[in-house]
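Q: What structure does this chain adopt?
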Amino acid sequence: MTVEFWRGRGYSFGQAPVQVALGTCEQMNRDVLLTGTPVTVPELRVLSAGLLQAQFGADGLRWVRWNGTEVLRAVQFLVRKPGWGTATSQISGLTVNQDASGFAVRYRAQYGAAGAGLVVDIAYHGTAGQLTAQADIRAEAPFDTNRTGFVILHPLTGFAGTEVVVEHASGPTRNVTIPLLISPGQPVFDMRAITHHPAPGLTVQTRFAGDVFEMEDQRTWTAPSF
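A:
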C-alpha cells in the first residue's frame, strides 16, 4: 500500500465481551474512561518526513497528516478470525529509524504459537510526499480468517460528502461521491487506488497491491471513518 501526496495538481481488532465498570469517575482508571476497557492504550511515537507526519503505536500508524491536515485516520495490519474477532500478536524485532530524510519502521508479528501460527513481517516507510506500508505473510499452518491484511481508514473531514476518483482492479476509473450521511451499504468495491482532496490544492492517492480492496462506512458501527 502506497500513499502519495502532492499540491497544485488539478485533478478492527475485535474484542472479547467487556465487563462494564460501575462507580464514580474517581474509581475508574484513565483507560476505562477513555476507551471503555481496562486495556492500556499503546504509547504513540510521532514520526515525520518533511510535511508528512504520522503517529506509530503497537497496532500501526494513526493520524497521518500532511502539513497539519489529516489525510488518513489509520493504517493497520489486522487478522480477523471467524466471527470477526481479532487475533492478538507477539511483536519482536521492532526497529524505528528517524532521520532528516524520513522514517522507517520494521517489526515481526507472530499470531498463534510459534511454528503453528502466522508470521507477518511489517514495514512502514515515510519520505517527503510518500508513505508505504508492506506486509510479508507466512502461514506456518492452515488457519481460518474472515480477513487478513491492511486496513486503511479515512477520516470524515475532507472525505465524507466529497467526490473521489476510484481506479478499479478490474480496469475502469470513475468518479464516486462518498456518502455525507451514514450509508448502510458499502460505498466502493474492487479498488486498486483511490484519490481524494482533503484540503484545497492537496491531492492524496492511496494505491493498493497484493489484494483487492473495498470500503465500508464505519459510521454504521459508530466509528468516524471510512
